[in-house]
Amino acid sequence: MKDTTDEDFIRQFDINVKGVFNALRESSTILVDNGSIINLSASINHIMLPTYGTYVATKAAVEQLNRVFSKEIGDRGINVNSVSPGTTNTELFTFEKPQEIIDRLASLSPFNRIEEPGDIAKIVLFLASDDAKWINVQNIGGNGGMS
């Protein structure tokens, strides 16, 4: 955080918090009753890595927005949850990252691999299903047990 500029701080909050806030507000008028809202948080919130202060603050804010919004919209049977991916094999994550670092991060999971986008998609699909209707205001750590 000590090297984060005001511009970086504002940009991260605009994308990660303001974007979710606007989507939640809009969903209150267009989402059908008994629907589901699933936002993304981050498993890194619990690891406390240097330089990630602003990012984890934005994801913590998303989780708090979920808690409050669920109280505002819950009488319509809409559940509000989030998923916290861990290290995910995406182009953004792997871009110019040495394989040694990727392997080290993979070793943080008992499965000894980083997750694939499909791993997260399955969790989101479940949370959007009727089988998950009683799951509400939860943050699911979709990270393969990363610690």
Kindly describe this structure:
The protein is mainly alpha-helical and 147 residues long. The protein has a single domain (6-142), classed as NAD(P)-binding Rossmann-like Domain (Rossmann fold), CATH 3.40.50. 47% of the residues lie in helices and 11% in strands. It has helices spanning 6-30, 53-73, 91-94, 99-106, 117-127, and strands at 36-40, 79-85, 139-142. It has a three-stranded parallel β-sheet with strand order 1-2-3, sandwiched between helices. Helix 1 (6-30) packs parallel to helix 2. The longest helix has 25 residues, at 6-30.
Provide a concise account of the structure shown.
The protein is mainly alpha-helical and 147 residues long.
Q: Strands of the largest sheet, in order across it?
A: 1-2-3
The structural domain count equals 1
CATH domain topology: Rossmann fold
From the coordinates shown, what is the CATH architecture? 3-Layer(aba) Sandwich
CATH class: Alpha Beta
Overall number of strands: 3
Element order, helices and strands? HEHEHHHE
Helix content: 40-55%
Mean pLDDT: 94
Largest sheet: 3 strands, parallel
Distance between the termini: 22 Å
- Using only C-alpha atoms, the radius of gyration works out to 16 Å
Structural class: mainly alpha
Low-confidence stretches: none
In the CATH hierarchy, what is the superfamily? NAD(P)-binding Rossmann-like Domain
Strand composition percent: 5-15%
* Number of distinct helices: 5
